[in-house]
Amino acid sequence: MNHARTRGKRAHRVKAGNEKAKKIEKVMKRQPFWRVLLFASLLTPDSLSALECAPLVVAKATQSAFPYGKGLLWKISRGGGKPSYLFGTMHVGDADIVELPREVSTVFQASSRLVLEAELNPRDTTEFSKLMVYPDGHRLSDALGEELFERTVDLLLRYGITRGSAATIRPWAAYLTLSMPPANGVALDMVLAQRAAEQGTPVYGLESLKEQGEVLSTLPLSDQIALLKDTVCHYQALQEDVQAMKTRYLQRDLAGLMAMAKKYEIAENARYGRLLEALLWSRNKRLVERMQPYLDEGDSFIAIGALHLPDTKGVLALLEVKGYRVVAVY
To answer: Which residue, among 164, 138, 142, has the nearest Cα to 153 in the 3D structure?
Structure first.
């Protein structure tokens, strides 16, 4: 065997994979991972002739009230220490969302530190992007089959991902991208980081982007493909639901956002149960553990996705269990 030739081919594949990752990275800088939490379960009936798409049915009964269901800004305190504030974000770049209300802006400007859901730095973005692509010659079409692959490629073009780049991304990465709306500006989390930098406020993160990528990349391959197919089948309807979610967010209606995530019968499917466990419930425990030092130091402004806040397994409930006092401010 010609080992030099084998090493050369392997090096070429790795180099090619890194180039694909760089292209995906440019897109992902405009498409934060966390948006998927707000859009992943919002699927309504739609048709797609090229695929066998099962219609989705609205659940007969949905819970309309969830604990901690109203409010985006919460005062968190314990004992006699200085309080901190926990703010629920929506990971989009709409002008009416990134413009902080006066009540939130006042607290943000007065805080000693900003703590985001994830660190936002070039190294982590690159590592996350590398997770999204196959490094070894595998292709997305091999996992999906031709019909689903072609439809997926057509949709990914809307996100600036070329056919060549789409061919080597992993199923979970395609699902993640299509679960979000195409980029429409700098997302709120990034805006907060920019404003903190401008006023000299240090910025920290509760997770790394690599950790967040591993949440989806470790799902069973069959789950990844099924989730992608559901999203492709009902893509247009999913995008139409985005505006309703923005409205509920601006109304500070956390219960409404959570109810939308459980609106359809498909939410009872085991794979969506595994998805929510991975994206929300398990991560909520990790987020709470990691934010405690910042809370105990006091005077922190902590910003995480709004869907992490409500429900009995949400961050606010978990904080109260640990002895923190939780009070809605806005």
So the answer is: 164
Q: Which tokens is 243 given?
A: 């505006």
- Count the residues in the chain: 330
Q: From its phi and psi, is residue 287 left (phi > 0), alpha (psi between -120 and 50) or beta? A: alpha
Check residues 82 and 53 and name the one with the higher pLDDT.
82
pLDDT in tens, 100-148: 999 999 999 999 999 999 988 888 888 888 899 998 889 999 999 999 9
3-state SS, one letter per residue, for 241-273: HHHHHHHHHHCCEHHHHHHHHCCEHHHHCHHHH
Token pair listed for 235: 């893509």
Number of structural domains (the chain) is 1
What pLDDT band is residue 2 in, cutting at 50, 70 and 90? low
Q: What pTM was estimated for this model as a whole?
A: 0.84
Which residue range(s) make up the domain with 79?
3-328
**3-state SS record for the chain:** CCHHHHHHHHHHHHHHHHHHHHHHHHHHCCCCHHHHHHHCCCCCCCCCCCCCCCCCCECCCCCCCCCCCECCEEEEECCCCCCEEEEEECCCCCHHHHCCCHHHHHHHHHCCEEEEEECCCHHHHHHHHHHCECCCCCCHHHHHCHHHHHHHHHHHHHHCCCHHHHCCECHHHHHHHHCCCCCCCCCHHHHHHHHHHHCCCCEEEEECHHHHHHHHHCCCHHHHHHHHHHHHHCHHHHHHHHHHHHHHHHCCEHHHHHHHHCCEHHHHCHHHHHHHHHHHHHHHHHHHHHHHHHHHHCCEEEEEEHHHCCCCCCHHHHHHHCCCEEEECC
- Report the pLDDT value the prediction gives residue 45, as an integer from 0 to 100: 35
* Pick from 303, 129, 282: nearest CA to 201: 303
